[in-house]
Specification:
148 residues, mainly alpha, 3 helical TM bundles of succinate and fumarate reductases, 7 helices, elongated
């Protein structure tokens, strides 16, 4: 006679008992996205490392001029988007595997996804400000209506 636990002595089918307790084949997409973003990061990181010597020695103005190049700006933007997405999905796997309290897991996932999204937006905003040569903080407060 097969081993039957007390909670399995019911009229529920094996499929009914297994629902919400295991793989539903939903992790395949997540796994593929991790692999695709890691492959996409290989040339981006190699390019960024090759430019590292150019970034460490010049002045701030020279770095800003380097970032004004459209090819550089697009490549940096791709690195930021793919890198933060890859990091976010990687941290998500760690949280899902090692945090067992459901409310703590949901809170941690929301906090990390929001944090990575906010950092990516801040990086892209800075890149746009540099490339369009606008300073959003140079507008006098009186013109905006904040200070009278």
């Amino acid at each position: 006679m097969p081993y039957i636990q007390d909670n399995e002595k019911s009229i529920r089918t094996p499929l009914g008992r297994a629902r919400n307790h295991g793989s539903a084949q939903g992790g395949t997409h997540h796994w593929w996205m991790q692999r695709i973003t890691s492959i996409a990061l290989i040339p981006l990181v190699i390019w960024l490392l090759s430019c590292l010597d150019c970034l460490l020695t010049p002045s701030f103005e020279q770095t800003v001029m380097w970032l004004n190049n459209p090819f550089v700006a697009v490549t940096i933007a791709l690195f930021v988007i793919v890198g933060f997405y890859h990091a976010s999905t990687g941290i998500q796997v760690v949280i899902e595997d090692y945090i067992h309290c459901k409310s703590a897991k949901i809170t941690a996932l929301m906090l990390t996804h929001f944090t990575f999204f906010a950092m990516a937006v801040a990086c892209l905003f800075s890149l746009l400000v540099i490339n369009f040569k606008t300073n959003p903080f140079s507008i006098p407060m009186q013109e905006v209506g904040i200070i009278e």
